[in-house]
Fold this sequence. Notes:
mainly alpha, globular
Amino acid sequence: IMVVGFSLFQRGETVKGVADLAMGLEPLAGTAAKAIFSIGIFAAGISSATTAPLAATYVITGILGWSTDLKDKRFRAITTVVFILGCVVAIMGGTPTNIITIAQAINGVALPLSVCLVVYVANDVGVLGSYKNTAILNVEGLAVVVITLFMAYRTFMVYAPKMAQMIG
């Protein structure tokens, strides 16, 4: 999607929806561009629809200290809730482009928290022992935290008004 979008941007074209992205493949694939792009989008959607709820469940159960066994009732319940929530958002949230935009904006704002958690764990002797971060790695980690905070701020300032329009 990024390569196709860049291709269209270079040609001065605009993208109003997912279907417009297929035009970026036309120089390479000709009349088959729409079919190829459709297959790619379908594959991406199916793989995300199955792996995203599972990944979220691993994160939630890991944070809560619960079992990550696929047969555990709490694990299955969380997977089901995350999957159903995703379906509800997809049904109620409008166009796929808006849903993807909102999801990526939320990810961009949540990124600094993830980076902070990684730096915290990388300094935990109980977890990493002698492999914990050195002072230089902590300075680099702090730089990454600052950069991601800036990116999150920028993402929020750009996309918060757009998300409010999409939702409202």
